[in-house]
Write a structure and sequence with these properties.
The structure is a single chain. The longest helix is centred in the C-terminal third of the chain and has 45 residues. The termini are far apart. Helix 2 crosses helix 9, helix 4 crosses helix 6 and helix 6 crosses helix 10. The mean pLDDT is 90. The chain contains 13 helices and four strands. Helices cover 64% and strands 3% of the residues. By secondary structure, it is mainly α. Strands 1-4 form a two-stranded antiparallel ribbon. It folds into two domains: 245 residues, no CATH class; 41 residues.
């Protein structure tokens, strides 16, 4: 297969950035978010390591840092203590400077001690990923320069390493509490940005996630689509993933439909009773008029 278009055309380079960015978001959503942070799914060790390696190479993010910041976000969502709330700091601050808030949060030793339970602590994590977390992005820069040259290479590298800071730390954390629709009236301002979670592997369905944080599946309604869940299902077919928790939310929607049906039925009953009352009133009025018309005239006294 001839892949020279990737290195010789602008649209090939753009496609390369998008594909790499999507894989990075997928690893963030599946491994860091759904698996390590919330334990909704467990992956085969080979798959977990592959995602850890990809994230180290393309982002330099520390698993412990990401997990601690996100867990603290769920504990203090949109209240004092939330590391990145657009309600407190404004959506533009989080969308465009979300990395600043993220870094400030993981530099807190108390948060790191309290919210990192269950994070990987093997030899690779202790000796490579943690102490040399920026080595991955540097190697990625070198690779891009070799593939695309000294001008296009750094530009493509910039698009790759800024993908998560913009789309995850910015769009999801910023717009995910600002615009969109809500399936659930949770105690925070979380919203589903759009119903189709394609580009960001389902992270667009933010309100659903805040209602059921431990659920490996983010989509809850028939018109919603969670790309990350489809990746998980594919891995399950090959025995490479085990789902620990799925909360569909169907009970909530059934109860909401039952209440809505009850309200409609009561309104219809009241309307029917009002209509019957109007008929009775009209009938009584007609009877009174008929009786008045058929009653004998009262004789008037003769005038002198």
């Amino acid at each position: 297969m001839d892949l020279s278009f990737i290195t010789h055309t602008w649209w090939g380079a753009a496609l390369f950035i998008i594909v790499c960015g999507h894989i990075t978001i997928m690893c963030t959503s599946l491994y860091l978010h759904r698996s390590i942070t919330h334990a909704g799914v467990t992956f085969n060790p080979v798959i977990s390591f592959a995602m850890r390696m990809w994230l180290w190479f393309f982002t330099g993010m520390s698993t412990k840092h990401w997990v601690a910041v996100h867990r603290k976000h769920h504990v203090f969502t949109d209240t004092d203590g939330d590391p990145h709330s657009p309600v407190l700091n404004g959506w533009a601050q989080i969308m465009f400077f979300g990395v600043k808030y993220y870094r400030a949060a993981y530099q807190d030793p108390a948060s790191m001690a309290q919210y990192t339970t269950g994070c990987p602590d093997d030899w690779v994590e202790r000796h490579i990923f943690e102490p040399h977390k920026y080595t991955g992005p540097v190697l990625l820069l070198i690779l891009n320069v070799l593939l695309f040259g000294f001008i296009a290479g750094p530009a493509i590298w910039l698009g790759q390493v800024l993908w998560v800071p913009f789309w995850a730390a910015g769009v999801v954390n910023g717009l995910g509490h600002t615009i969109g629709y809500r399936n659930y009236k949770v105690k925070d301002a979380s919203r589903n940005i759009i119903p189709l979670g394609l580009l960001l592997s389902g992270e667009e369905l933010h309100n659903n996630h805040h209602k059921y944080p431990s659920s490996a599946k983010f989509s809850k309604r028939w018109f919603e689509f969670d790309m990350g869940w489809n990746y998980i299902q594919t891995l399950r077919l090959f025995g490479l993933a085990r789902v620990n928790m799925v909360q569909t939310g169907l009970a909530d929607f059934k109860e909401r439909a039952r209440v809505r049906s009850l309200v409609i039925s009561q309104a219809a009953l009241h309307a029917r009773e009002a209509a019957i009352e109007r008929v009775h009133t009209a009938t009584d009025a007609a009877k009174d008029m008929a009786q008045a018309a058929t009653a004998p005239a009262v004789a008037q006294p003769a005038k002198m």
